[in-house]
Each structure stands twice: as structure tokens, then as C-alpha cells.
Write a structure and sequence with these properties.
Length: 238
């Protein structure tokens, strides 16, 4: 009888133009897609800077750049500053609901609008519902969705994973027409409160890239910690 492999094989993707820093070349370190990732292994991966994209687990492993660093908020130490309090107050008419993971036409329509206006021409700007489902609703771990609504109207959707000591925000999209509400910031504030409510320590936000405005905003949510793959440690950026 053959025994299950004790640890997954790692592969490096082919080099490609970086979608965040145009002057750089990107590559990823990938977990063997055929290897079954358990909750315990996923917790180890997330604490070592890996992320999940559908059923794919990866970490940036670029030839000459180390700017992509996994970021997490220590939610029990987080205190809203004045700007965050204003955003929270501005959205007092918004309700939150937890939903099971799954494809919903309403979600897909909002996703298409978000991608077309916020990330036109990006690899994610694709009208194919099957590709959306492969990325957004395919998961072998403990995953759920968080909806924010203004009355019955959908404001934002987040895909979130449970990990050993926190929640991981896999992806969030929102109504770009509601820019005055700062829906991206407000959704993260709700994710922080949700993480606290289940007595977790951390909210994992994905990658922080100091020189990329699309990603640098994450440093606002102090105390945020950044993972250094060289030293294998989490620390607060100076």
C-alpha cells in the first residue's frame, strides 16, 4: 500500500511581466495543485506568506524583486483613526450578512462592473462566469462570503477563509459608483470587526507592495505586520 506524500512538491512558475510594477519580472512559487491542502497545512502556508487563488496556493518568488510581502492586521490592537471613524459613520445604513460560498448572478454582475471600472484590461477583467467561479468560488478549505448591502442593494462582496489564527481576505469587490462611501476601506473595517468577533488574532490582507498605490494602502491599517520570506519573520514596517 502506498503512503500519502508527507509534504507537497513546490514548483516555480515561468517568468512573466509583473502586473503591479511594470519594470519588474514576476514569478511564483506554487504548491503542487494535485496535493490535498488540509486546514493545518493551509495555516502553515498562510503564516509563511502564501496566498490562495481558487485551488492554487502560491507565493511570489521573483527573480530580482522582493516587494510583494504578505500583510496582516493584528485586529485586537487595531484602533480606528479619525478617517476610519468618519468612514464607519458614513455607512451606518449598511448591513452585513454572511453567506455560504457559491456562485450568485448578483455577485457576478457586481464583479464585472468593479473589474471594468477599476481594473480594465487586467487579467481578472473577464466576462467568463466559469473563470470567475474557478477563481472566486472554488475552494477546498473553510471559506465563506461576506456581503454588505445598502437596503437590498449590494455594496460589496468578500471571499474569506478561516485559518488557524485568523481570517484571510481572498478577494473583495465593490460598487465603484459608491466611491463617496469609501467601500474598500469600509469593507476592510467590517472584516476586522468580524475577525475580532470570533476571537481571532489576525486578518490577512494579501500582498503589500510599497511602490504600488493599488497595494500600498494596506499599511494604513496599523498595526499591520509584513512577512519577510528571507528571515521568515513577521514585523511592523518602519
Amino acid at each position: 500500500m502506498s503512503r500519502q506524500q508527507s509534504a507537497p512538491d513546490l514548483y516555480q512558475s515561468t517568468a512573466h511581466p509583473c502586473p503591479y510594477l511594470p519594470s519588474e519580472t514576476a514569478a511564483n512559487l506554487l504548491i503542487d495543485p494535485k496535493y490535498p491542502v488540509s486546514s493545518a497545512l493551509y495555516d502553515t502556508l498562510i503564516r509563511n506568506g502564501f496566498r490562495r487563488n481558487g485551488a492554487l496556493f502560491y507565493r511570489p518568488h521573483c527573480p530580482a524583486c522582493r516587494q510583494c510581502q504578505s500583510a496582516r492586521i493584528r485586529v485586537k490592537d487595531f484602533v480606528m483613526n479619525r478617517a476610519f471613524r468618519r468612514t464607519w459613520k458614513r455607512n451606518q445604513d449598511v448591513s452585513m450578512e454572511i453567506r455560504t460560498l457559491g456562485f450568485r448572478e448578483e455577485h457576478f454582475a457586481l464583479y464585472r462592473t468593479y473589474q471594468a471600472l477599476r481594473h480594465p484590461g487586467d487579467s481578472m477583467d473577464n466576462p467568463d462566469p466559469e473563470k470567475y467561479q474557478k477563481f472566486m468560488t472554488e475552494s477546498g478549505v473553510d471559506t465563506f462570503m461576506m456581503e454588505l448591502r445598502i437596503g437590498k442593494r449590494l455594496l460589496s462582496v468578500s471571499v474569506l477563509d478561516h485559518v488557524g489564527n485568523g481570517l484571510s481576505a481572498v478577494y473583495t469587490f465593490y460598487d465603484p459608483a459608491e466611491a463617496r462611501r469609501s467601500p474598500g476601506t469600509f469593507t476592510i473595517l467590517h472584516q476586522i470587526e468580524l475577525t475580532r468577533s470570533v476571537d481571532y488574532d489576525n486578518l490577512y490582507l494579501g500582498y503589500w507592495i510599497e511602490d504600488c498605490p493599488k497595494m500600498s494602502y494596506k499599511a494604513q491599517f496599523a498595526p499591520v505586520e509584513i512577512f519577510d520570506p528571507i528571515s521568515q519573520t513577521w514585523s511592523t514596517p518602519q
